[in-house]
Every structure is written in structure tokens, then in C-alpha cells.
Design a protein that fits this description.
Strand content: 15-25%
Helix content: 25-40%
Oligomer: single chain
Structural class: alpha+beta
Number of helices: 12
Order of helices and strands: EEHEHEHEHHHEEHEHEHEHHHEE
Distance between the termini: 17 Å
Bound molecules: coenzyme A
Length: about 400
């Protein structure tokens, strides 16, 4: 197979569900904006040259239903000939979309594709509006439907991740994100229109738009002492809190992928290529352990030593699972390589967008630091892990 090159990878800010800046911005607007921005940031690329757009979405229903991939493509102004699909692998959907889009180019079937992701957890909450587990099968297999918070409690308990360690990890995530925001290190972030409906004197609402420039969930005043005071969010006597869990968030991200021939024809300088990708299953009631299996598997497939990986983005669904995976991978003394600008505890985890968002962040950091190999990984509801290895061009 030939290589597929990533030339542009961008994201909207991540903004808190309901309380944040995108609470009145529909998911179609978020994803179509970032698709448009990704093309505009790719010099010489015209929308008609993109063949297919894959959009990750974990709960593709209601406002983000009806094949959001196709809806977003047309709303973003791509010609009707450009197709769109929705990809769902829960928390890795955005990464899966980048992989599927890359594979199309690697197979020689397309010259230019886009892999993207979107989730408005304001419009469609975690779990969707109407979950309907199978009535008989679930009697024997209820673990598949375990609340994500309880899976995090299970990981903390089974693998001895203390509350103090979870809170210290969470505080570090917040501090790193606050520093990165202050120093303008989120090069992949595109200021994005946020809609507000403002009550007028007449009693009607006026639609207004402001430019949202930052991730609004970061709490730069976080302390471990403050975190230690929070009550458990999911289980009485538990250790998983609002402070050491990922935030529920709205956001979108997009990555433009093309063949070497197209890169050369447009005179572009590619950022990176997707070297390898894999997924692996684990017990649903401790789904957070996924990365500890997926990362070694992808590195073995690629023949790359973990010591040669310069940067990791390991999704912080919860501090308990992220920390357990980091320990199991023998990376506890390599924290300067992991989530260097903070993770989902501070920046949010907009489910189906997250894989695409983390790719944008990882690639921006690899470029800034000149790192050859970067790994992106996450745990996935239902009991899975995914991992991708990117190589800087
Ligand atoms: C845990 C959870 C239920 C909390 O939801 P929430 O109540 O909306 O969380 P918030 O971020 O608003 O925090 C609630 C309160 O906790 C406290 N808090 C949160 N983070 C804090 C921090 N870093 N320092 C101090 N206090 C903090 C604050 O008092 C905050 O209230 P405030 O915003 O009015 O100040 C939600 O974030 C969640 O479900 N997370 C996991 C999502 C998930 O499962 N994703 C899939 C993973 S696979």
C-alpha cells in the first residue's frame, strides 16, 4: 500500500456541555465550520478535490443524526459529488474516521479525503436520548452497559489507583492545559463561531454569533486540596469525582489526508503520515484499560520501540484509567511525553470528536517539538482500546 499524508489537522475549542460557549451552537455548525476551515488552511486545495469525508460521532442521532457526515459536507459548501459518512466507535470515532479516510488513500482508491469528528454533548447527551438495550440478552450481559463512571471506579479499585493519585493526575492535567492556553500553544485550534440567542426588549430572541477562541473547561485555579474535597460522582464511597473525570464537552475537529502525488501537485509540505493503527477488546466493565493493550499492539505491528515514541496523547476519560494504563505501560517516569498540553480532564472529551481532536493536538505538538513518532490512544465504551502511530514527515 502507498502512504497517506496528513497535511492539515485542526479543531474547534472544546467547550463545556450546557454551561459552555457552544451550548446553543448546533453540531452541524461546529463540524461544517471546521471542515471548511481545514480546507481553507490547506493551500491550493479546492473542495471539489476532496472525494469523501468521514465524520466520527458517538451518538449520531437527533441534531447530529441523519448521517452527519453527509449533512456537514453539504453545509460546509462541498459540491454534491463529495460524499460523507458517519463513523461510530464511541470514544475513538474521530480517530477511526481519520484511519478510514487514510485507508482510502493508501489503497489508491482516493487522492484526497478528510477524517473528522463531532459531538455536541449538549444537544445529545452521553447514552443518547433513548437507550434501548436488548431486554433478554442484557439480563446475562449487563456489564456491557456499565456506566462509564463505574468502569472508572472498577479500574481504580482493581488496580489500586488511589484517590490522591487520581487527583494529582487531574491537577497536573489542569495546570498543563492552563499553561498551554496562556502561552498560545494550541496551534491546532481554530477560533469558532458560537451562537447565542439573546432576549430582546420585544420578548423575542435574536440569534447572535461570537468568536470562541479558547477551551472553556480549563480551571486554572485547580489545586489538589480543592479536588480532594469533591464528593464521588458515581458511587458512594468511591474515588471518581467531577474533578478527576473527563468533562462532557461540545466540539469538532478535521484532518485533511492526501496521496504523495496530490501533495506534490499542490506543492504542499505534509505534516505526518499514519504509520499503523489497531484496536483491541477488553472487559466492558473495566473498559478504561484499553490503551494498555492497544499501545503495545500497535507498536509491535509497526516494529517501533516504546522508548522511541516522543509524544503520547492518551485520552483522559478518567484519571484512574489513564494513570493505570500509563503505569502498566511502564511510562510513569515519562510524564513529560504524555498529554503535554493537558488532557480531557481539563480540555474535555467530546466523545466522537475526541479521536480527531487528539490527532490535531498530537500532530501540532510533534511538529513544534520535531518528534518523529507520536502515539494516540484511548479507551472505548463497551470494552475496547484503540491506538494509532503517527510519523512526522
Ligand atoms: C463527572 C461528571 C458527572 C461531572 O459533571 P458536572 O457536574 O457537569 O461537572 P463540572 O465540571 O461542572 O463540575 C461540577 C463541580 O465540581 C467541582 N469541580 C470540578 N472540577 C473541579 C476542579 N478542577 N477543582 C475544583 N472543583 C472542581 C466544582 O464545584 C464544579 O461546580 P462549578 O462548575 O459550579 O464550580 C461529568 O463530568 C461526567 O460524566 N464525566 C465523565 C464523562 C464520561 O463518562 N465520558 C465517557 C468516558 S468513556
Amino acid at each position: 500500500m502507498r502512504d497517506a499524508y496528513i497535511v492539515t489537522s485542526v479543531r474547534t475549542p472544546g467547550c463545556k456541555r450546557i454551561k459552555g460557549a457552544f451550548s446553543e451552537t448546533r453540531p452541524e455548525d461546529l463540524i461544517s465550520f471546521i471542515l471548511d476551515a481545514a480546507v481553507k488552511k490547506t493551500p491550493a486545495l479546492e473542495k471539489k478535490e476532496v472525494e469523501d469525508i468521514m465524520v466520527g460521532c458517538a451518538f449520531p442521532e437527533a441534531e447530529q443524526g441523519m448521517n452527519i457526515g453527509r449533512v456537514a459536507a453539504l453545509m460546509a459548501g462541498f459540491p454534491v459529488e463529495v460524499t460523507g459518512a458517519t463513523i461510530n466507535r464511541f470514544c475513538s470515532s474521530g480517530l477511526e474516521a481519520i484511519v478510514q479516510a487514510s485507508l482510502r488513500v493508501m489503497a489508491g482508491w482516493s487522492e484526497v479525503t478528510i477524517g473528522a469528528g463531532v459531538e455536541s454533548m449538549t444537544y445529545v447527551p452521553l447514552g443518547g436520548h433513548m437507550p434501548r438495550p436488548h431486554p433478554e440478552w442484557t439480563r446475562e450481559h449487563a456489564d456491557l452497559y456499565t456506566s462509564m463512571g463505574i468502569t472508572a471506579e472498577n479500574v481504580a479499585r482493581r488496580y489500586d489507583v488511589s484517590r490522591a493519585d487520581q487527583d494529582a493526575f487531574a491537577a497536573q492535567s489542569q495546570m498543563r492545559a492552563a499553561k498551554a492556553r496562556k502561552e498560545g500553544l494550541f496551534a491546532e485550534l481554530v477560533p469558532t463561531p458560537a451562537v447565542r440567542y439573546v432576549l430582546q426588549d420585544s420578548g423575542t430572541y435574536q440569534k447572535e454569533t461570537v468568536l470562541q477562541k479558547v477551551d472553556d473547561g480549563i480551571r486554572d485555579n485547580t489545586t489538589v486540596e480543592g479536588l480532594a474535597k469533591l464528593n464521588p460522582a458515581f458511587a458512594a464511597g468511591g474515588t471518581v469525582t467531577a474533578g478527576n473525570s473527563s468533562q462532557t464537552t461540545d466540539g469538532a475537529a478535521a484532518t485533511v489526508i492526501m496521496s504523495r502525488e496530490k501533495v506534490d501537485a499542490l506543492g504542499l509540505t505534509p505534516v505526518a503520515r499514519l504509520k499503523c493503527y489497531t484496536t483491541v477488546g477488553c472487559q466492558p466493565d473495566e473498559m478504561g484499560v484499553g490503551p494498555k493493550y492497544a499501545i503495545p499492539k500497535v507498536l509491535k505491528m509497526a516494529g517501533v520501540d516504546i522508548a522511541d515514541v516522543g509524544l503520547f496523547e492518551i485520552n483522559e476519560a478518567f484519571a484512574s484509567q489513564a494513570l493505570h494504563c500509563i503505569r502498566a505501560l511502564g511510562l510513569e517516569n515519562d510524564m513529560d511525553k504524555i498529554n503535554i498540553n493537558g488532557g480531557a480532564i481539563a480540555l474535555g472529551h467530546p466523545l466522537g470528536c475526541t479521536g480527531a481532536k487528539l490527532a490535531a493536538t498530537l500532530l501540532a505538538n510533534m511538529k513544534r517539538k520535531g518528534v518523529r513518532y507520536g502515539v494516540e490512544s484511548m479507551c472505548i465504551g463497551g470494552g475496547m482500546g484503540a491506538a494509532a502511530l503517527f510519523e512526522l514527515c
